[in-house]
Amino acid sequence: MLSIPYIHAQTGTITVKGNVMADGEPVIGATILIKGQSSGTATDIDGNFTLNVASNGTLVVSYIGYGTKEVPVEGRQFINVELTADVVALQDVVVVGYGTQRKINLTGAVSSVSTKEFEGKLISNALEALQGTTPGLIIQQGSSNPGSAPAINIRGLNTMNNNDPLVIIDGIEGSLANLNPADIENVSILKDASSTAIYGSRASNGVVLVTTKKGAAGKVEINYDFQYGVQNPTMLPRIADSWIYAELYNEAAVNSGRPTKFTREDIDGFRNGGYNVNWVRELYKTNTPQSSHNLSMTGGNDQLSYLASVGYLDQNSMFKGPDYGYQRYNGRLNLTHKVKPNLTLYVTSQFARNDIKEHAYWTEWIIEQANRMPPIYPVYKEDGSYNYPSGSNSNGLQRLQDGGYRRNVNDELLGTLKAEWEVIEGLKLIGSTGGRVWNNNMHEKRVAFEGTGDAENKLTEQFYRSKNITTNLLASYNKSFGNHTVGGLIGYAYEGFSDRQFSTSRLTEDGKFDIFVGDLSGANVSNSGGAGDWSIYSGFARATYNYSEKYLLELNIRNDYSSYFAKGNRSGLFPSFSAGWRVSEENFWSDMSDYIPSLKVRGSWGLVGNNRIGAYQYMRTVTTTNDISFGDKLAETALFSSANPDIKWETTRMANIGFDFGLLNNDLNVTIDLFNNLTKDILVNLPVPGLYGFSSPIQNASSVETRGWELSLNYRLKTGMFTHDFRGNIADSFNEVVDNHGTEIIGGYDVNTIIKEGYPLFSYYAYRSDGFFKNEEEVAKGPHLEGITPKPGDIRYVDKNGDGVINPDNDRFIVGNDFPRYTYGFTYGVNYKDFYFSLFMQGVGKRNKWMRGESVEAFHNNNEGPVHDFHMDRWTPNNLDATYPRLTMGSESANNAAKSDFWIQDAKYLRLKNIQFGYIVPRKVIQPLGLTYLNLFVSAQNPLTFTKMKGGYDPEYTADGSGRAYPVTSVYSVGLNIKF
Question: Helices (H), strands (E): how many in the chain?
Answer without folding.
Answer: 8, 52
